[in-house]
Amino acid sequence: MARPxxxxxxxxxxxxxxxxxxxxxxxxxxxxxxxxxSGALAQFNIFPRGTGEICFDAGTQPxxxxxxxxxxxxxxxxxxxxxxxxxxxxxxxxxxxxxxxGQAASDHIDRYFPAAELLGEEAFAFGEEVSAQYILGQLExxxxxxxxxxxxxxxxxxxxxQHEKLIEQTISWLGSALNPxxxxxxxxxxxxxRQAERLVERxxxxxxxxxxxxxxxxxxxxxxxxxxxSDAEAAAVAEAFYDQPHMVxxxxxxxxxxxxRLGGAGQPILKTLLQMKNFDRLQKFRAL
Length: 288
Known about the structure:
HTH_AraC, 8 strands, about 20% strand, about 40% helix, Arc Repressor Mutant, subunit A, 8-stranded antiparallel beta sheet, Jelly Rolls, Helix-turn-helix domain-containing protein, 10 helices, alpha+beta
């Protein structure tokens, strides 16, 4: 039986929508939560309650700090969190990660680590302060999310207009189809193919083809999880893969679960759902 949990999304201020897709609050009182995370987008998280670990191919990493960062993942990773587990956080666009950290996402892919490693001791102090106020009932979830947004906003640096344009064009390309043609991307970028591939990997964590492959699986899982799936939507998903076994393998690889309508056990309770909403909002980036 599924454990009860709550997950609430909050819109960031208009001034932050190019950097943050969504602010969120998650809570479960379960003693232990075991699931998978797709890690489609970078995140800044505060965990007032709960500790655990996340497992990547390279090994298991502890999750014990209050304030944490990740730049994304090459594929779904399993995690265990000892509860009660509460999370307050922000999902970052590629521009948001670059402006906040000044670091290449590709240098931090498949890592989950204390935010203080990149953002300094003030990130440690902020995580401790928000956690303490939240546990004492002095910060309600929405106010805690607002505090996270304000704190991040004050620390955003600049990204060159040329790089902002590359991020925008890459997002537009990703959203153009479930299985976008990589040859359609490069003519929109003002760089040689080799330079463009390096820059996309720098800002998105993976080369263009790998980014498209990951988002194809995540978006397809979101569509297949819909209550009122239409014939047209089902056909569009089917056309994006070689065949159904290929679809199942890809969705399991990047989401950690196979959708129930394909015979799987269901969707992860938190972050796969979060990334679905994130990608929809990410598409609005280019219109801002």
